[in-house]
Amino acid sequence: MFEEFENPEFEKWQAEAERLIGDKYAGLLSESYKSEGLKLKPLFRQEDNKNILGIESLPGQSPFLRGAKTPTEKRNEWLISQESKCPTPEILNQILKDEIRHGATSLNIPMDRPSRLGFDPDETDIESVGREGVSLTTLDDSCAALSEIDISSYPIYLHVGINGLLHLAYLMALAKKNNIPSENVRGAIASDPIGEWLLQGTLPLPIENAFDELAAVTNWVDFQSSDLGTIWIHGEYIRNSGGTVMMELAYSMAAGVEYLRQMENRDIDISRVLPHIKFSFGIGSNLFLEVAKLRAVRLLWDKITDACGIPPDKRKIRIHATTVDYNKTRLDAYNNVLRLTTESFAGAIGGADSINVSPYNMYENSSDNDSRRLSRNIQLILKNEIHLDKIIDPGGGSYFIEHLTNNIARIVWEKFREIEKQGGLIESLKAGTLQVEIEKIEKKDASDFLSGKKVSVGVNKYIRSDEEHSEIDQSNSRIEINKRREQIGALKKSETYEKALDALSKNHTKLKTPECVDTLIAVASHGATIGDISKSIRRDLPQSVRITSLNIHRRSESLEKSGSDS
Q1: Is the pTM of this model over 0.85?
Q2: What is residue 274's DSSP assignment?
Q3: What is the rounded distance in angstroms from the CA atom of residue 103 to the CA atom of residue 22?
């Protein structure tokens, strides 16, 4: 039968594809990849994917192009890991229990800036307390936040900034209080001194001392034979400040190498550090690019760890995917649901180990049970109705995705090498090279957005004429924060707090040793606050060197402000 049909040459197929796509849409499609340094063709075929690294490999085998899980393991299973952003431990506890009841499989807890840096709420700017996450200051706070939750049953991700040492002490004191062995506590004390430094521009202690504390945490956790993570590299910071996918991956790989280097400098073998590192990547709206990105990063980390002398079965990367904030809008916020859906879909197809889908209306500071439920249910549908968790590497075999994967890995590798040539990520950040590059890209993106060349549905195109612009009343949450500041202030003046101060005073010298974690757990059990412990262990230390900080923002903010003023 096939003899009856003409066997057209490839050039004819390509010409027909170009005709169907059309010049206008071909240009728009190509533009979305051009900023990443990628070139598109109208048609891809098997010949385009010759000699691609790992193309013949199996799932669970180096270089992990097909994923880190073998067919006999959990297939494409991932953790539903919804961020629970709220200001106080009591509110957090309600949200966490609601998440567990309705399908979440891990607890993902961002902390506010003071808790991440080691300040008490009564000693810092009130606007920063409870703003970006929960305020956790004492062991009682941790107990309140995790009340009636079995912390051995769910992985817990505590985003602690530079403050891993202190929050590890609180978590382990809580486990001890509930008779839970430390090795049964899973998740991560998600420390990221480099990321926090880049966010803030400066730290309350030198970056080298922050690495000392991180080494103490990692060493103690590994010695306890715990699966608890200690290093969490926030690549999404780059995306949420306007950076490209290539910048995000190059920064993340350089950060991973820097952490390995710093831990090795503190006599911790790289093979002991690797199981405690997790990478977080922001997932944007470009479906195919994001799928290919997560596949490419597995190739990159395999290549890096191979160069470090790590055996193939130990080179697996651990990936968390989170929907980006940069492309989300406050105006016509229901459109965010569609963006969140494609982004979580990309995270699942790309093989993420855990995924966070933010509430669609969190940019109005008004996320509620319904919006959190909607975001959580997106993942539940991907699992229970589309069954993406049953399929290993769903994007594998697509000529286009394989081509993208290979080219992303190639471009990022060169960017990573450029950072290393500057002396590594620390020196690069001090020089401001990455920050300048991000600022340049973001300015062009903002210009394209304001001119309408780049479209945000509901903001600069297809705008609702009846859209109302109103501010959200946050007075109640601010009242709770004021109460919290007063409570911490009153605690420090109480007679019982003298025991905590006495414990700090007696153990001051021990808190500066690499074996300080057990001492910190004891001190935390007496009720000492984050701020007082931080002052004790960081006494006489200067601030870090100041670097250019990132400008975390959403692209549509300028138009939203002008719209609300009209």
Answers
A1: yes
A2: G
A3: 44
CA angle, corner 554, sides to 550 and 557, nearest 5?
120
Place of tokens 């950060």: 255
**Pick from 399, 424, 406: nearest CA to 299:** 406
Structure tokens at 102: 């309705």
Asked if 324 and 239 touch (Cβ cutoff 8 Å), the reply is: yes
Nearest Cα neighbor of 198 from 550, 433, 437 is 550
Given a contact cutoff of 8 angstroms between Cβ atoms, the answer to whether 420 and 254 are in contact is: yes
Model confidence pLDDT, tens digit, residues 367-425: 678 899 999 999 999 999 999 999 989 998 899 999 999 999 999 999 999 999 999 99
Question: Any bridge partners for residue 314, and if so which?
Answer: none
Cβ atoms 436, 532 nearer than 8 A: no
CA distance 534 to 204: 10
**Residue among 350, 370, 196 at smallest CA distance from 284:** 350
* Cα gap 69→396, rounded to integer Å: 14
What gap in Å lies between CA 289 and CA 35, rounded to an integer?
Answer: 12
Cβ 175 vs Cβ 524: under 8 Å? no
CA distance 241 to 555: 9
CA dist 64 and 70 (Å) reads: 10
Tell me the residue type at 246: M
Q: Which of 413, 451, 408 is nearest to 558 (CA)?
A: 451
**Can you tell me the distance from the alpha carbon of 454 to that of 337, in angstroms, rounded to the nearest whole number?**
19
Order of strands across the sheet with 354-356? 79-80, 354-356, 319-323, 277-283, 229-234, 187-191, 156-161, 107-110
CA 406/CA 328 separation, integer angstroms = 29
The two tokens of residue 315 are 């080179």
pLDDT digits (tens, 9 = 90+) for 465-517: 665 444 434 446 667 788 888 888 888 888 778 777 777 777 766 655 656 88
Tokens for 272, please give them: 């002991």
**For position 474, what pLDDT does the model report?**
43
CA angle 456, 462, 466 (to 5 degrees): 115
Contact 344, 378 (CB under 8 A): yes
Residue 318: how many CA atoms within 13 Å on its side-chain side?
A: 20
Phi, psi dihedral angles at 281 (to 5 degrees): -125, 140
Give the integer Cα–Cα distance in Å for 319 and 317.
6
Strand-strand pairing, 107-110 and 156-161:
parallel
Tokens at 452, concatenated: 């309408």
**Residue found by looking up tokens 């993570």 in the block:** 229
- Band (520; pLDDT cuts 50, 70, 90): confident
Tokens of 562: 């002008």
Is residue 320 helix, strand or coil?
A: strand
DSSP-derived letter for residue 310 is -
Q: Can you name the residues that pair with 191 across neighbouring β-strands?
A: 161, 231
CA dihedral for 471, 475, 481, 482, sign (positive or negative) = positive
CA separation for the pair 402, 264 (Å, rounded): 35
